[in-house]
Amino acid sequence: MAAQRKASRYIVPVAVAGVAAATIGLVPALAAAGDPDLPNVTAQQLIEKIAASDTQTVSGTVTIGTDLGLPSIAGLLPSAPAGGGGGEGADPSAKLTELISGSHTLRVAADGPDRQKLTILDGSDEYTLVHNGADVWAYDSKSNEVVHEKDAAAGKGAGEDRKAEKAPKGMPATPKELADEVLKAAGDTTSIGVGGTAKVAGRDAYQLVIKPKQAGSMVESVKIAVDASTGTPLKFTLASVDGGKPVLDAGFTKVDFGKPDASAFDFKAPKGAKVTEGAADKAGKAGKDGKFGEHGPVPGMEKGFGGPLGSLMGGAGEGGKNHPEVIGEGWTAIAKLDTGAKAPKTEEAPKEVQGFLDGLGDKVSGKFGSGTVFKTKIVNALMTDDGRVYVGAVTPQALVDAANAGK
């Protein structure tokens, strides 16, 4: 128990990296040079165009570049040795986590809600996810392992049946109503406009630009390139006030909205590959227990951790404890919680965590006392020495100000 309490001190700084990743939506994006001459549209008309889009088929190549401004997190994420024999090498939850850092190239294809394929290219290695009707396959060429699942929801609520569904009472039922609600929700905290045009994967696109009006946010802007013909988002770029490379720049370098050949979604386990049936059921149970493998996702997480951090890191806390208080609203909202744990001391951290903490944290002080700010380019967290935590997509100074105010 003592070891668990000591290890739990390091949950918050390590979780900051995960929170930053969770704030990012992976919408395909990559702009090409040349701005097309398109008819002028308003932000409302562009939002309506996105809402009215009914793209069911697409294929192409996507690149994703992510820069959270973090030191290396190698060794901190749950993983399994190649060739483990239990499907761990092909486990999607571990493989897709790798997309939160660095640059990656993907091939994608979709034919409605029941057929999708995603291949992550890594040199000569490939990782493939295939959803074809009732079957879901994951294959990792490096470990030569396959995971096979059955999709119990296959065929339900899809196609024309989905189109016929009515919006719940009180919810926007048309693209125009949805656009009205989006602009209304933006209110005084958000600026939404059209920032010209762009060429994306050879297609003409409009750029929807979203910016915070509030001072203190770490978000400089969100830009979404929208296909001028189909209304499909083609580009998503998240920029930080810290400047430099975008936090996320992900997207199509090639795109085709034609129907992919049915054979694109066929899958046959390669010769000699280890095939594991129903591995996701085991992984799901492990996640509910707060454990992955023998040691758990993060030391000391067996009992969980309340609030959004807990949901992210694999636990919901005991008896509803540690649920955060939200300070402020909009882009500068801050979550505050009292962990009851002392601030981490780098020299006491597990060896694989020490370098990460050194590169992530800065000592700060004020009326609240003293503590450490754990930083990324988009989400920051202040952990005071007496165990209070302030987390938000806000500047370190905004966190210090909130702590000084005694909120």
Estimated helix fraction: 10-25%
Q: What is the residue-averaged pLDDT?
A: 76
Number of helices: 10
What is the radius of gyration computed over CA atoms, rounded to a whole number of angstroms?
Answer: 23 Å
Q: Note the gap between the termini.
A: 31 Å
Architecture blueprint of SSEs:
Elements lengths: L1 H7 L2 H12 L8 E2 L10 H10 L4 E10 L25 H6 L4 E10 L3 E8 L2 E8 L2 E6 L4 E6 L8 H6 L10 H12 L3 E11 L2 E10 L6 E9 L5 E8 L7 E9 L17 E4 L1 H10 L18 H7 L11 E3 L6 E5 L12 H10 E6 L2 E6 L5 E5 L3 E5 L3 H9 L3
Parallel strand pairs: 7-13
Antiparallel strand pairs: 1-8, 2-3, 2-12, 3-4, 4-5, 5-6, 6-7, 8-9, 9-10, 10-11, 11-12, 14-15, 15-19, 16-17, 17-18, 18-19
Structure description:
- There is one protein chain.
- By secondary structure, the chain is α+β, with helices and mostly antiparallel strands.
- 22% of the residues lie in helices and 32% in strands.
- The protein is built from ten helices and 19 strands.
- The protein has helices at residues 2-8, 11-22, 43-52, 92-97, 159-164, 175-186, 279-288, 307-313, 351-360, 396-404; strands at residues 31-32, 57-66, 102-111, 115-122, 125-132, 135-140, 145-150, 190-200, 203-212, 219-227, 233-240, 248-256, 274-277, 325-327, 334-338, 361-366, 369-374, 380-384, 388-392.
- The strands form two sheets. Strands 1-8-9-10-11-12-2-3-4-5-6-7-13 form a 13-stranded mixed sheet, covered by helices on one side. A six-stranded antiparallel sheet has the order 14-15-19-18-17-16, with helices on both faces.
- A hairpin with a 4-residue loop joins strand 6 and strand 7.
- Helix 2 (11-22) crosses helix 8 (307-313) and helix 3 crosses helix 6 (175-186).
- The longest helix has 12 residues, at 11-22.
- It starts with a helix and ends with a helix.
- The model is unreliable at 1-33, 79-84, 157-165 and 283-320 (pLDDT under 50).
